[in-house]
Amino acid sequence: MSQKIGFILLPGYSSMSYVSAMEPLLMCNELMGETRFETFTVALASNRSVSSLGNPIDTHYSLSDAPEAHTWIVAGMSPARHPKTPGLEEFLLARAQGAALGGLASGSYTLAKAGLLNGYRGVVHWLTLEELVKEHKSILLANEQFCIDRDRLTCRGGSASLDLMLMWIAKQVSADTAEAISKYFVNERLGIPSNAMHQELSERTRSEQPKMAEALELMENNIEEPLTTDDIAFHVKISRRQLERLFKKHLNAVPSRYYLQIRLEEARSRLFKGTESIADIGLGCGFSSGAHFSTAYRNQYGLTPSEDRSLNQKMQIAK
Fold first, then answer.
1. Cα separation of 289 and 188, whole Å?
2. Distances (CA, A) of 276 to 57, 223, 269, 301, 315
3. Rg (CA), the chain
4. For 246-293, how does the pLDDT look when each residue is reduced to its tens digit (9 = 90+)?
5. CA–CA separation, 78 vs 147, rounded Å?
6. How many Å apart are CA 126 and CA 253, to the nearest integer?
């Protein structure tokens, strides 16, 4: 059964972001010899949109006559600008219950502004981010270049659109198919967030913020038995609120989330290095159960530990 995917092309949409997302879907159809993804384009008011390159494109539909789809992807601008998009929020809200929703470049801002990322992890462009977060406090901001959380797909645009769509194809079709498409585009990474690792604290900041440096050292030295945020604050002799403010200011993260990323990166490193069992890796990185480890890992990298290990092994053989 084919899936219908509608691309809503905002005025000035990023050509690179849009094409990087569209091409893998078309290649999937070609490689499989059948139409797994049926794509079409939509403009806001008329059947025409103009790209970032100034090229006009005649779309298949406008918002007023667009058919239903399994997935809607808003192709926005990069760098992000946020012009008025009359009727778009209402259009997306009306389809939020029955379809997956995605945003490329500033398209993720459109989803967030409509409240459609509330309670989801997502990637939103930094422009006007502070205002957005104040209005929608339940958005869980991700540091990655792209993010898939249940039926929400967001990315920062550019080549990240390719990685986002490869991961979506891996989920909807198979990892093997996504791998084949990745090779076709000479893409070395298969939909793995290129910025999924935690942001490092600079040496200068470590020197100027000894409490931060001490907190990070505690996290790095307590992987198997993680400390709570209150424990860390107690050991570095500051309040929990002070610790959270430091992490927000210097790392744009909350301590618990940053700590989780450190543990997941250690787990991923061990996953690729040897033959240690996934259960032992999870326990060794502070996860109380295999289910807990698998869920946290999938939320971070888009694949379960076993899927990621298998994919890495295939990529190594292919090289």
1. 32
2. 53, 16, 11, 19, 19
3. 21
4. 888 887 788 998 899 899 989 988 988 878 899 999 999 999 888 889
5. 17
6. 14
For residues 194 and 90, give the distance between their C-alpha atoms in angstroms, rounded to a whole number.
Answer: 33
Length of the chain (residues):
319
pLDDT tens profile 302-313: 778 888 888 767
Main-chain dihedrals φ then ψ at residue 94, nearest 5 degrees: -70, -20
